[in-house]
Amino acid sequence: MRPNGLAICGVAIVALGVPFVLRSPHWLQVLSLAFYYVVLTTSWNLMMGFTGLFSFAHTALAAIGAYTAALLVLRAGLPHVWAIAAAGIVTGVASLLLGAISLRLRGFYLCLVTWGFAEITIGIFRVEYRVTGGTMGLMVPSLFPSAWGKTPYYYLGLFLAALVLTFMVLLSRSRIGLYLRSIRDDELASEVLGVHTVLWKVFCFTVCGFWAGVGGAYYGYVVGVVDPNMGALSEMGKVILMVIIGGMGTIPGPVVGTFLVMVLSEFLRGRLAAMSMLIFAVVLIVVMRFLPGGIMAAVRPLFSFLTREKRVRLKPEAPES
Amino acid sequence: MSPFHLFLEILARGIAIGAVYALMGLGLTLIFGVMRIINFAQGEFYMVGAYTVFALMQNLALPFYIALPLGMGIVFAIGWLVEQMLLRPALAGRIDNPMEYSLIITFALSILLQKLAILVFGPFYQKIPDLLPGNVPLGPVTIPGNLLVAMLFSAALIAIVTLFIARTKTGRAWRAIAQCLPGASITGVRVERQGALVFALSTALAAGAGAVLAPITLIFPTVGSAPLVKGYEIIAIGGLGSIPGSLLGGILLGIAETLGSVYLNSAYKDVYGFALLMLFLIFRPRGLFGQVS
Predict the structure, then answer these.
(1) What residues pair up with B136 in beta bridges, in sequence order?
(2) Which region among A236-240, A311-315, B124-128 has the lowest average model confidence (pLDDT)?
(3) How much is the pLDDT for A63?
(4) Distance from CA of residue A179 to its chain's centroid?
(5) Of chain A residues 234-263, which have a CB less than 8 A from chain B?
(6) Per-residue pLDDT for A310 more than 50?
(7) In terms of CA atoms, which chain A residue is nearest residue B98?
(8) Start-end of H helices in B83-180
(9) Measured between beta carbons, which residues in chain B are less than 8 angstroms from residue A292?
(10) What are phi and psi of B219, to 5 degrees?
(11) Which residues have C-beta within 8 Å of that of residue B192, sequence separation ≥ 6?
(12) Could you tell me the CA-to-CA distances from A129 to A73, A122, B125, B272 in Å, in that order?
């Protein structure tokens, strides 16, 4: 795994060094938002790409996290760190309940129920304006002194993204990761083999909800406002787009897809602002139709070329015949 | 106006709007029943239908009743092309998980069509002339003329399609595919071709619904999202893949929605339908009429 280790070190050095090179607050803001999407896409990928649970509720869960953190800070005066943690826990519990009621459902039925959950959640945020500020949303107090600029938000986002990715790597290498993938490939067969599918599906819902909640709380701090639109279906479309373009079911895929979409849509902002989603929709259709594994599937041959030497060495020596 | 009379008025409107919802639900049911895939872009075909009829009337000065079938024909052709280009692999068994594939690709298609509509027609509201201005007295109640036309058109279209499915050879082929795909294939049904036909017909039905409701809802790029939502609520209530279910579900939803917005908190209007959808899917996933699978 040496090339992998090298790649991770390289990415880490670049990511840590970016604020020293890139002085533009605008770009730091874009990258901070990208870290929010990394948290969302990585956790949605855990549900969809690893466990096979199609959920439209992910951005609505992030909205729950964002509102929880904002309300706890604004109304209860909780310290920010606790508010972020509480956002994760509250969203995790909400997601657990969603998972528990939709346990028997798969595929399209699950998609409809999670969509319903998302719309109901956003509907409540919109209507109960006395608590949530309605469609105007809530102003979130800033996490760091404004004199520090955008840099601390960038590092906080980088930290959260690193945390969720480490979690994913550990999970996918563990026994639980295998359980989840066996549920995706054949739920009945894995149950027959003794996998507690109900438990692990609920587990998946809960941890994904936790990460979405933490991500949502972070979003609130970066943007300064939380409003119901952050849970809308169009946001969910963005998450799906990023995961599919990058490569569903792989760990680097969603990260690659997120940064590609975020950076490209920043470049398209000038002349083609309104059309960036149009272009991405075309890209999504083309990728689904002709490149089902996304970018990761396209670059995999390259990686196997880099690691080929090692693979050959791993094979036992064949006796000469 | 007495409370009972008010109730009757609301009921009549609910049934009328429900008939149009049922038309949307029928299209989704056909696609799901025969092709076993999901069309998330159905609302956008509704929108494209409305815009096409609008453009035909505006640019070629065609009367509505000529522009309507023409527009449905155009959307039929678009639907056929979309099926050929994007959904064929799902039906031909070349994709591991056709449901997931169709869900994501039609979701992308819906974004694409919405943005294209903004590009071509702009984000403004467009209007086509009233089909039947004013209110029409109908026994004890009066009903807006536009709504009456929409209801009659939807009912006629639903009747034609259900008769077609029940009586013709093609309809029998569709029922055969819905019951057992390999069986239908063995007995000589050209499954892929029928799939394309079903998809194109469903999109044309959505386009008709969009055009005929256009005088009431107006036309704008995201006009299709509400009917899409209604369509899925209907097939969840009626049972996925059940035609009588989608018809009754449509009427029920129309009534529930109009009654609910008058007698309950109307701010939560959109939430009620979703709550109903969740309740049905969780406690009775086969809906009112769906078969046990």
Answers:
(1) B143
(2) A311-315
(3) 95
(4) 21
(5) 234, 237, 240-241, 244
(6) no
(7) A107
(8) 88-91, 98-121, 145-167, 169-179
(9) 95
(10) -125, 125
(11) B88, B91, B92
(12) 17, 12, 28, 18
Instruction: Check if B292 contacts A (Cβ < 8 Å).
Output: no
Q: Which of A216, A211, A250, A231 is nearest to A114 (CA)?
A: A231
Tell me which chain B residue has its CA closest to the CA of residue A244.
Answer: B104
Interface test with B, best of A106, A276, A278, A279 (most B CBs within 10 A): A278
As a whole number, the mean pLDDT across chain A is: 86
**A149 secondary structure, DSSP code:** T
CB atoms within 10 A of CB A317: 6
Beta-carbon separation of A123 and B285 below 8 A: no
The reply to whether A3 touches chain B by the CB within 8 Å rule is: no
**Rounded to whole angstroms, what are the CA distances from A40 to A56, A118, A197?**
12, 15, 24
Closest CA–CA distance from residue B145 to any residue of chain A (Å): 32
| Paired tokens of A231 | 């849970």
- Inspect the interface and report whether the beta carbons of A127 and B267 lie closer than 8 Å: yes
**Chain-centre distance of CA A312, in angstroms?**
35
Residue of B64, B38, B77 whose CA lies nearest to B213: B64
The answer, yes or no, to whether ipTM is higher than 0.85 is no
The alpha-carbon gap from A128 to the nearest alpha carbon of chain B, in Å, equals 10
Q: Are A249 and A50 in contact, with CB atoms under 8 Å apart? A: yes
Cβ burial, residue B193 (10 Å; 0-12/13-18/19+): exposed
Instruction: List the structure tokens of B130.
Output: 């009233």
Instruction: Report helix, strand or coil for A150.
Output: coil
d(CA A126, CA A134): 4
From residue A214, alpha-carbon distances to A219, B145, B148 in Å are 9, 52, 51
B144 three-state secondary structure: strand
Pairwise CA distance, residues B74 & B81, whole Å: 11
Rounded to whole angstroms, the Cα distance separating A57 from A61 reads 6
Asked if residues B89 and B35 have their Cβ atoms less than 8 Å apart, the reply is no
| pLDDT digit string, tens, across residues A14-46 | 888 888 887 788 888 899 999 999 999 999 999
Cα of A101 to nearest chain B Cα, Å:
7
The per-residue pLDDT for range A236-285, each reduced to its tens digit, is 989 999 999 998 888 889 999 999 999 888 888 766 666 788 888 898 89
- Please state the φ and ψ torsions of residue B144, each to the nearest 5 degrees: -60, 135
Residue B136 backbone class (left: φ over 0; alpha: ψ -120 to 50; beta: rest): beta
B120 touches chain A (CB under 8 A): no
* pLDDT at site A315: 47
Cα distance between residue B204 and residue B67, in whole Å:
13
* Cβ separation A285–B116 shorter than 8 A: no
* pLDDT for A274: 67
Q: Give contacts of A59 with chain B, Cβ < 8 Å.
A: none
Which chain A residues touch B237 with a CB distance below 8 Å?
Answer: none
Q: CB–CB of A120 and B275 under 8 A?
A: yes
Cα–Cα distance, A138 to A79 (Å, whole number): 17
According to the model, what pLDDT value does residue A108 have? 78
Phi, psi of A294 (to 5 degrees): 70, -165
